[in-house]
Structures are given as structure tokens and as C-alpha cells.
Amino acid sequence: MTNGLSLEELMKEETYPEEYAEGENWKILHGDTLKLVKAFQPGIFDAVITDPPYASGGTKQNERNRTTNQKYSSMSATNALPDFDGDNKDQRSWTHWMAEWLYDVRKACKKGAPICLFIDWRQYPSITDALQWAGWIWRGTAVWDKGNSRPQKGRFRQQAEYIVWGSNGPMPISRPVSCLPGVFRYGNPQNRIHVTEKPLQLMKDVIQICEPGGLILDPFAGAGTTVLAAVMTGYRAVGIEVTDAYYKLGSDRVKIALEAEQKEDEK
Predict the structure, then answer these.
(1) For the DNA methylase N-4/N-6 domain, which residue ranges apply (predicted)?
(2) How many other C-beta atoms are found inside a 10 Å radius of the C-beta of residue 203?
């Protein structure tokens, strides 16, 4: 490939994943993020945009140990989407795990590269700790307003998730990136293929924090939404996905959507 996405350009020798999917300007690697982020060449990514497992959905450990469908979905068992890995850690283990991959992925990023991490209110304090322990500069928080949630009498609606963001060292204001909003209002996607899938337009908006044409890394690719949004808007993207079902679902989704877009453009 000539777009900087060959395995030789991305990764150190003898560290290639056993399986990967690819197309023009994108690649999704099948494997464990903790291992694969150590294998990237230094200083190759322009941004990290990702939605990691929250390991949330409960205040007690037995609640967090439930499956991801039990925690995050109201679908019946017959219609349930596949569960995903990595969501059963307690808060201390999750924070250390986050700090470990964040530390290694920072080495693979260019100086000044932005990072955006989706999270909910329960793990918000821990993710800001992990980000800073790993050497990133924490620069603020944006809000994803989902517009609806399960109402609870006498309480505020939990209708927002958060985007904790920062940078790999100084981040010059001279970058060719416009001022972005601090609140994004999109409902949950319909007909989603992942339990915690984010809206495609939301991801198209968020990735604008990256310089035009940049190479974006999503270490938790899931449904492939970030990878798809990146390629559709003129970026290049590399994703990592450990769960077998979502590696296939996400890769197939990106391929099919981009092929359909290309056919539409050719009309």
C-alpha cells in the first residue's frame, strides 16, 4: 500500500498481528490492544480517538461482572448483540490498565497529537488520572448529549457521556483546525451492530480535532464507526479490536459502507 498503512510502515518487525482487514486508507487489526500498541513504530499517529470499555454499569463488583448486554442494553436475549471483552474490571484494575495502554500509545503518536476518550460519569475521575499518569496533557472535556435516558423521579437524567481530551505535549494553536463545539447533540444510533455504538455523525464531528488528512488510531474499534467516519471525511485510520465477533462485524461494516459510497460517487 502507498498510503502509509502497510504493516512495515506501521509496526516493528516480527510484531504483526495474525489477522487484519484493510482497504484504501484504513486497516483494522485483530488482537489485544495492550500488546499491539507496543508494536507500533514511534511517532506515526496524528490523533487517537476511541471509545474504550467503561467497566461501568454498576456500583458493586457483582454488578460490573454482568455481561455487557446485561449492563448496557435492554434488548431481549433472542435479539441481543454480541458481548464485548474487557468490561469486567474493578475501578483500580481498570485505571491501571488504561494507564498502561495510554502510556504505550503515546509513544506511537506525534508531538502535539490530540487524544479523545469517551467515558461515562462513573469512570470520569479515573480516566483523567490514567491519562495524566501516562504522560498526556489533559486539556478538557466535551459532552455528548444523547437527548434521552431512563427517567428517575427526583433525579437529573443521565443523558450525557463525556469526551475527555488532551494532547501529547504542547499543542500549537496554529494547527489548521477550526474551533470545535464543546457539546454534541445526537441520539443513539438506530439499528446498531454494537452494544455501545456511537453515532456516525458524532464521530465525523469529533475527529475534526485531528489535522486534515492525518492518521487516526482507534485502539477499541468495535463497530468500526471511528474508522469509517475517518475515511469518509478524508483521514486515514487504523483500528484494533480484540473481540472476534466485533472484529468481523466492524471490518465488514467499513468495507460495505465505503464500497457503497464509492458506487454512489461513480454515478
Answers:
(1) 46-168, 188-249
(2) 25
Q: Is 146 left (phi over 0), alpha (psi -120 to 50) or beta?
A: alpha
pLDDT digits (tens, 9 = 90+) for 104-138: 999 999 999 999 999 999 999 999 999 999 999 99
Length of the chain: 267
pLDDT score of 55: 87
The dihedral over CA atoms of 257, 149, 126, 173, expressed in degrees to the nearest 10, equals 60
Q: Which residues contact 222 (CB under 8 A, 6 or more apart)?
A: 51, 84, 194, 196, 197, 241, 246, 250
Q: Which domains does the chain have, with CATH numbers?
A: 7-266 (3.40.50.150)
Residue closest to 101 by CA, chosen among 9, 32, 51: 32
Inter-residue contact 147 to 159 (CB < 8 Å): yes
pTM of the model: 0.88
Kindly indicate the confidence band of residue 62, based on its pLDDT and cuts at 50, 70 and 90: low
Residue 261, C-alpha cell as written in the block: 459510497
Distance CA 60, CA 51 (A): 22
Please check whether residue 248 is in contact with residue 13, taking contact to mean a CB–CB distance below 8 angstroms: no
Interatomic CA distance for residues 144 and 11, integer angstroms: 33
Mean pLDDT of the chain: 89
Residue 228 near residue 258, CB atoms below 8 Å: yes
Cell of 73: 442494553
User: Of 74, 39, 49, whose CA–CA distance to 219 is shortest?
Assistant: 49
Dump strand ranges (E) for the chain: 19-23, 26-30, 47-50, 114-119, 137-145, 160-167, 183-185, 215-218, 236-241
